[in-house]
Design goal:
Largest sheet: 3 strands, antiparallel
CATH class: Alpha Beta
Oligomer: single chain
Number of helices: 3
CATH superfamily: CO dehydrogenase flavoprotein, C-terminal domain
Number of strands: 5
Strand order of the largest sheet: 1-2-3
Shape: globular
CATH topology: Enolase-like, domain 1
CATH architecture: 2-Layer Sandwich
């Protein structure tokens, strides 16, 4: 099943998610007018979340994103891992 979500964050940045899910997240695309350094970080963060169960809590998603960001010295500008995790859970259709 495919889900999508578009949100304008409080800082004015627009973020779009496209998620495919069966029992687990099978595909995830994150786009928007935020920045990530190094540039390929968003693609890699998408891959880190593949295979997570569709009922995964936002705290687990944020923990995975934070761990990846710390290990790879990722800098996000205009987007936080907390906001991203919440949006993913919202796109998946659970709290």
């Amino acid at each position: 099943m495919q889900h999508s979500l578009t949100r304008k964050l409080p800082n004015g940045k627009l973020v779009r998610l496209f998620v495919e899910v069966q029992d687990t997240i099978t595909s995830l695309t994150i786009t928007g007018d935020f920045f990530a350094h190094p540039e390929e970080s968003i693609e890699q963060m998408e891959k880190v979340l593949l295979g997570l169960p569709k009922t995964v809590p936002a705290s687990d998603i944020q923990q995975k994103l934070d761990a990846y960001a710390a290990e790879n010295k990722v800098i996000l500008v205009g987007l936080t891992t907390e906001a991203l995790a919440g949006m993913i859970v919202e796109a998946l259709g659970h709290d």
